[in-house]
Structures are given as C-alpha cells and as structure tokens.
Amino acid sequence: MAKGKSTMRSPARRSGQKMVTADGLDQPISLELCKRLNRFYEALILLSSLMQACSRNGQQPNKAPSDVSESGDNYRMTQECLMNKLAQLCDNRRGGDTVTAVAIIQLPDCLVYAFASNQRSPKEIEGAETFLLDLFKYLSQTSASSSDFMEDATSKPASYILKKILAFNHERVQCYRIGLVQRLTQCIEDCDRRGSVHEKSSQDDEALVRAAADLRQSLIYHSIVDRGKLGRFDESPHWAELQHFIGRLVSYLRATQTIFVARRRHPELFDIDSIKIKFIASSRPLPNPMNAFQAGLDPLQRQTVRSANDLIPRMTGDAGMIETYRQYADELQVCKLDELIATQCCKSNPRGFRPIVHSEVLLLDWLRKQFAEDMHSIPFYEGNKYIGCSKPTCRLCEYYFAAHSSGVRVRSPHRNVYRNWAVPDVLVEGESSRDKNKMIDAVLVKVREDALTALREKVCVRKRFDSNTYSSMPTCQSLTGISVTLDDLSSRIGGLSISSHAHPRVYPSVVKSIQVSSNVEDTCSVADHGEDGGSDDESGGVLVFSGRNRRP
Asked: Helix (H, G, I), strand (E, B), or coil: what is residue 266?
C-alpha cells in the first residue's frame, strides 16, 4: 500500500455498493443513496413550484391551526410559551438563517437550555449565548417576589429586559420599521415622507414597539385588520403587511411580559447557578440536489433543467395517472409552472438551493444522540417532550416529527414548504443509516401525495406570512380615523408625516382597560410556531393576554 494513503473506507464501499461522485460533495456516495436523494428532491421541487404556481392561480389564504386556551396555571403551557418566546428572541435576523429551536433538559446537577439554529456561524452562536446569559443573570438577580410589578410593561425591570431584547434584535426591528413606513405610505395616499428611517438607533426601538402596542389596543386596529383581509383577495397587500409589521413589533413587548410571568410561576427555570446554555452547531448545507444527485444517471439522461412532464413520472408508476397529471400540469403552464421548476434547478439561482437541517430537527437529532442512546430516553424537564421554536413548524418538519419514534411535540404547522430542507446526517451510510433512510422515505411519501393533490386541485395550502394575523371581529371605522391613529404612530417613528386633507380629523376612542388582539399569539397558544425568506411569526404563546379568537 502506498505510504500516506488512508485505509479508511465508507460503510457503503465496504459493503460492495457501487459508488458515484456527486457534484459538490467531498466524497463519493453510494448509488442507492444518490437515487434516494434524487427522488426526494425532485418531488420536493415539484411541490415547491406548485405552491408558487397555485398561489398565482387564485389561492385562498389559509389560517394556520393553533391550540388556543386560557393561561390559568397550566404548568406545561407556561413552560412552552416561555420556550417559544426565548427561541423568538434568538431569531434576530430575517431570512430564515437564525430560526431557532430550544429544549429544556433536566440533568442531575443542572438544567440545560439546548438551542439550535438553521444557519448560525460560531461567532453568531457566541453572541446569542452571551445575550441569553445576560438575560438570565439579570432575571436571577432580581427578586421574583416582585414579579407582579415587573410584569407591568412600564416597570423598570421590564424596560431593562425589553431594551436588551431589542438591542440584540436591532437588525430585525429595523426591517420592521422600514417595512412599516413603506406600508404606511401605501395605506395613506397623502403620506409625506421627510427624512430617512434607515438610520434609527436601537434607542428608538423601544418607543416604536410601545407605539405599536398602543395602536394594537385601539379600536382602529380592527379596521386595519379588516382592510388587511380584503387586501389578500384584491391583490392590495399593504394593509395586511401593515398589520403584520405592527404585530411583529408588539411581539417583543409580549415576550418581555411572558418572561416575567414564567419567572414568577417557575423561578427554578431562571436560577443562573443551576442552568447552562448550550447552542448546537448548525448543519453544513448540501450542494444543489437537482444537479448533484443526477450522478447516478447515465450522462445522456442527465438534465440541467427539468419540467413538470419530466418530474411527474417520478411521482407514480401508473401510466394512466402519469397521463392525467401531465394534463393537469399543462393547465398550470399559464402560471409558469415549468419556469418555476427551471429556476429552482438552475445553479445560478440567486436565492440558492442549498438544503440544510432545520433547527427543530437538528435539535431533536442532537438530543437523541446525546441522551437516548445511553439513557434510553431524553431527560426533558418535568418529562415535557416538547421542542419550542421561533417559528411555526414547516410542512416537512411536521412530517418528520410525525414519523419519528421519539414522540416529541413541536409547534403547530403553518404548512409552508421550503426546498432547503434535509434530514440529519443525510450523507451518512451503513448500518446506522437505516433509520435515516426510513425518515427520508416517510417524508417523501407525504411530499408526493401533496404534489399530486396540488396538481389535481390547483390549490396549495400555504401562508404568505408564517404568522397568525387574522381577526374575527369586523368593525366599521373610516379611513379618517385610521389616518389619525397612524399619524400618532408615525410621529413616534420620526421623519414621517401622515395627514388626511380630504376628511376632517375624527379622533377614535382608545380602549385602555383591555387588551385587543387579532392574533392567536395574544391568546395563550402553546403549540403555534416560520419564514419563507422574509416572513415572520407572531405567535408562540402568550401567558398574560386573552385574545378574541377563542374556541367555544
């Protein structure tokens, strides 16, 4: 044997399987795995493209399911609300990279808060850990007996925590500030911008959040909600987006109050001397699967770009079904279905097709490896087998957890589909990969079913925002009243003047004694959970506010 040559061989190679070199991978993989992944991502690309095509085909908005109940003294509800909010506070950038999951693990000598994010660098992980430790240190040092006072959003401790939260989330808050101003200019025709909102400091973030909270308590907010509903149907989305940005800003205040409620009820969760923060390293992205995993095909069979007609035979072997579903696909060409598929297959796609392990799945896999193999079960705190997350569960993660043997629960899904999705250890082969292959195949079955359903029905279940921003209480406020309230909000933002010259000013009454909400977030939802590149979630459970969307 040549000196210096490694004697290590992959399990697949040792077993005599044929190996192939996939484009973009550091090492060969078995032909069997290459074909399995090619099948999976072809189905996923078809479904992902259909989601976009069907939304252009008049798709109706879908309200994500949620578990809504009163907070009461439900121990698990308190814990799960806290976990979702802590994850949200770590999700400090838009775009999906910092989507974060968390679990609380009970060890003999301490509690471990285990976190994982979609794509966070080691330096970013260090920053998130420092942020969390600072929060827990402050909460541990302040007296839990005074939490009733601290739950007041205007109290000094609450303001301190809110400032810490907003400083860490400053980049995201600025996106909301800019988006809010843009939507204001579209909602109010005679809006006159003066100056720039791009250079606001983090010191202004708290005023912005509190202004948004005041607006959410006003009767005028119902009108914004109603106009947002109409906007979803008449292709004038700025009212819905205005509602969304307001809700996102208010969510930081809600998170602050949730933390203090949880600390009063369960101070042991905040004892800095007996807790540890652990962030799991993010996964390494795969190369574009639509190119890489064609390595198992004959060179003459490989296609740089594929169409619906190419992919449908991969969904079923029934010749009659293939012909029928190809006809369905032809009907969707008016929505540019093949162009959408081609764009996602393209190497130069600026948005990138680089699958990663989503944070909830990544965290579950780490917990299983860390504890279940030796202890036979994961030692969740108080036996609550729950992983919280900053976003509702995506459709593929929903299918993954449903097929997983652990029985771990996650947030309710929003049903959106993201092509950048992979199972843990996707390239690992050998005896240990059997369970992984079963999970890939289990999710693939559901993806194929959804793709064929979408082709047949021409409608996909998805949400524009990965958040619950719906209201069930219509009102009849005029645009004049809305203009007045938004004028007050914009004056706090600065650099923006909104007025209505067509109508006299009519100042609406403002309800201060109750909390008015259009979001399931502001009920005590404990199983709501997302992000499609720029959308956000407003839910995750709130312990102290009861909204209007209660189940009978």
From this structure: coil
